[in-house]
Amino acid sequence: MQEKGDIMTQLDAPQSVQPNQPQKTHVLAILSLICALLLCIPFAAPVFGVIFGVIALILISGSNGRTKGKGMAFAGIAISIVVLLAEAGITYFVINLTKEGAKIVLRDFGSFIQAVESQEFQAAQNYLAPDAASQVTEDHLDELRNRLKDEYGTFNDVSIDFFSRALSQGANQQPISWYTNLNQGPNPGTSMSAFFPIEVEFTGKTAYGTVELEVTDDTTGNAAMHIVTFTLIGDDGPWSFPPEPE
How much is the pTM? Predict the structure, then answer.
């Protein structure tokens, strides 16, 4: 007759899988591999792939042979990490490429502001679109120089405001379709406008706004960009240059 302690010991002992009991692949191991291969859902899918894979390994190890799928879980984790690193690298590259492209596009805007600050008004007018330059006088440019100096300080840099913060504060509400326009490019002998949300760094503070650039292309295929108008958010709300004709 078995002692009571021996019976309890047998009940408490881990139950190993029986020879005729098939092992089941753990569902989390399957989900881990599926998430790793879901390239159509960047970042979220591989993150869940790693999470499901780790949990699957823990549960499989504690199942005493009732479930399997460690190899699938390891594969899901490994592929998820590779995909996650690849997506992060591609995102970093695209963001930096976009920023560099934006700097080239907005280079003339920065040169215009610097020319105004240096009182090189003739040079400043060369950065304006013909229609804008025709209505801007040296007095207008001098007023602009004084306003920028008094309200913002000295110009440092300009970049694309990817959050479009100026639009929520009443700046130019034109559609920002510059991605499409710049990729298509103008036809020879024509011009088009492209709107950009901008972030302008001054020594006093950072200003947000929008700028409209006119892209012109002559019959030889030489393209150029000129400023049509720009809006900045000031202490009293948004204001634009060139000023409205009186």
Answer: 0.58
